[in-house]
Specification:
The protein is an alpha/beta fold. The protein has helices at residues 25-35, 59-68, 89-95, and strands at 7-12, 15-20, 39-43, 48-49, 53-54, 73-77, 102-103.
Length: 117
């Protein structure tokens, strides 16, 4: 029902940043295995499509992604963005506790990854 997801890969030197649109674990994992990013920016929050189909990863899938791609920084976005996101930042933080490479920023928070050149 949702169609294909939009995913973008930004490459600058050795940095490979994968930015996903609304997508679930299998799609993101498949693309990340192929593209080998060192940063993944993923929509989370378990957004629901018409109240019956998830459009974004839930916190369990974010944890799975973080386990599978332990070498990459994972930044979760889209959390609490709209009323169709049924999982909170706090829930996501609970699920990724102990995984320092997963960031769950607040609205408007600036996230710096790596060191400036």
């Amino acid at each position: 029902m949702l169609g294909s997801n939009s995913t973008y890969l930004l490459v600058a030197g050795s940095d490979r940043i994968l930015i996903t649109g609304d997508a679930l674990f299998d799609d993101v994992s498949d693309i990340a295995r192929r593209e080998e990013p060192n940063v993944l920016i993923v929509n989370a929050g378990s957004a629901m499509f018409w109240g019956r189909q998830r459009a974004t990863m839930n916190s369990t899938e974010v944890r799975r992604l973080a386990t599978e791609f332990a070498h990459a920084v994972i930044v979760t976005v889209h959390l609490e963005a709209l009323n169709h996101c049924i999982e909170t930042r706090d829930r996501t933080r609970e699920m990724v506790a102990g995984l320092p490479h997963v960031l769950v920023p607040e609205d408007g928070e600036v996230v710096l990854i790596g060191s400036p050149s």
